[in-house]
Every structure is written in structure tokens, then in C-alpha cells.
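Example 3.2
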Amino acid sequence: MSIETNRNIVRRWVEEGWNGRNLDLIDELYDRSVVQHDPNSPIAVTNTAEMRMYIGGFQNAFSDLHFTTEDLLAEGDKVLWRFTSHGTHTGALMGIPPTGNKLTVVGMALFRLANNKIVEVWVNIDALGMLQGLGVIPAMA
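Structure, written as C-alpha cells:
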């Protein structure tokens, strides 16, 4: 696999999967036994069914969720995606009822690919900022 192929797979996932809300793309772009490492995740992700639940949960909670790619860097079998996301909290998220709040959350995800599939992902988002934006945790003065 070339570095450019890996970058294009992740770019396609962001544009068509996340922003295009196409969860069926998971079966095409992710390995069936994909593992996601995310210390803030409400569920463990160790396969495509769990990945679908994880992503679907955010898409259902933020009806207008959209990601802007700030950086998309590739080297070897890894692609780093740095993003800014925007969305309105219109559905329940991790037991938090809809607030109607508009949020901006930044983060990064590191993808490892093999055989033209995403096999592993490490996610780090500004969870504190997200929870403050939802009003669950008070913002610092």
C-alpha cells in the first residue's frame, strides 16, 4: 500500500463516512476486527459493528455534525487526521439529554492501515471542552 492510498482511504472516510453520514462505508474501509483506542469512548470498539454504534451515537447526538480537516499526514502504514468538528446537540449522548447547544470540538485520530483497510485507530479529542459545552461540567472562569 502506498502512503497516498492510505491518505485517500482516510480522506474518503472523513468526507463520505463522517460528513456524508454513510455508515455503510465502515464495511468497505475498516477491517472487520478493527480496534479503536479512545480513553473517552462510552463503548469498547473491537469490530465494525461496535464502530458503527460508536460513530452512529455521535451522528445521532449531533444532527449537523461536520468535520473540517486541519491536517492529514501520512507515513508508512499510518495516517494522522487533525480536525475541528462542529455540531448541535440534538440527541442524547452518553446519557446526556439534548441541550440544543452548538459545540466546536478539536481532536486527532491516528489510523493504521493494512491491506487497504483501517485496522487500528487511536483517538484523542477535547472531551473536557465537549462536556463543558454541553453544560455537564462547569467552564472555568
